[in-house]
Amino acid sequence: MRRGLVSALHWGAFFLVLTMVKGGVSHPWVLALFVALIAAWGALTLRRGMQARPGPKLSAPLRQAYPWMHRALHLLLILTAIAIAARLAGRSLPLLDAWTLLLVTLAAGTFHGLFHVWRHMALYDNALHLITPRWMHKWL
Predict the structure, then answer these.
(1) What does the alpha-carbon distance between residue 123 and residue 63 come to, in Å, rounded to a whole number?
(2) Is the distance from CB of 44 to CB of 94 less than 8 angstroms?
(3) Cβ-based burial of 122 (10 A; exposed 0-12, middle 13-18, buried ≥19)
(4) Which of 50-54, 87-91, 93-97 has the highest mean pLDDT?
(5) How many other CB atoms sit within 10 Å of the CB of residue 26?
(6) Taking a C-beta distance cutoff of 8 angstroms, is the pair 12, 40 a contact?
(7) Please, which residues bridge with residue 96 across strands?
(8) Rounded to whole angstroms, what are the CA distances from 95 to 1, 82, 83, 104, 129?
(9) CA 124 to CA 121: how far, in whole Å?
């Protein structure tokens, strides 16, 4: 059950980031949904820990960096959600511009996705099976 919930939160965040970037300035309900989704994901992560684990085929330096890369991504998502929540409340935060953080989140998410595609394709460790729904596995 937790794997499915984390997968839904992961892909929900991905599509909401794309929606917000595509829209430039998104509708308030999209922004609020993103903030709520990241709050739920953050609460789950704080309570149960991160689900992501480095695969055995990663080199030692990548295995050591893996949890820190994921923590950094979670922190970036949380900072983005805080900046967006402040924007919804009509406030601006110094050094936390919502649009800039959203673009940085998109860039970091792109590298995150490319890393996992590389793991899946080059190392054959089925990395994409861990975060995609089971019905998609026949195409991976």
Answers:
(1) 13
(2) no
(3) exposed
(4) 87-91
(5) 18
(6) no
(7) 93
(8) 38, 12, 9, 13, 37
(9) 5
Q: What is the pLDDT of residue 53?
A: 76
The pLDDT-based confidence of 59 (bands split at 50, 70, 90) is confident
SS (H, E, C) the chain: CHHHHHHHHHHHHHHHHHHHHHHCCCCHHHHHHHHHHHHHHHHHHHHHCCCCCCCCCCCHHHHHHHHHHHHHHHHHHHHHHHHHHHHHCCCCECCECHHHHHHHHHHHHHHHHHHHHHHHHHHCCCHHHHCCCHHHHHHC
The tokens describing 95, both together, are 């050094």
Report the C-alpha gap between 7 and 52 in whole angstroms. Answer: 11
Structure tokens at 97: 């511009």
**Token duo for residue 27:** 């509708």
Q: Could you report the per-residue pLDDT of 1-36, keeping only the tens digit for each?
A: 577 788 888 889 999 999 998 876 678 999 999 999
Q: Which of 107, 3, 85 lies closest to 39 in space, CA to CA?
A: 85
**The pLDDT value given to residue 84:** 94
Range name among 15-19, 38-42, 45-49, 74-78 with the lowest pLDDT average: 45-49
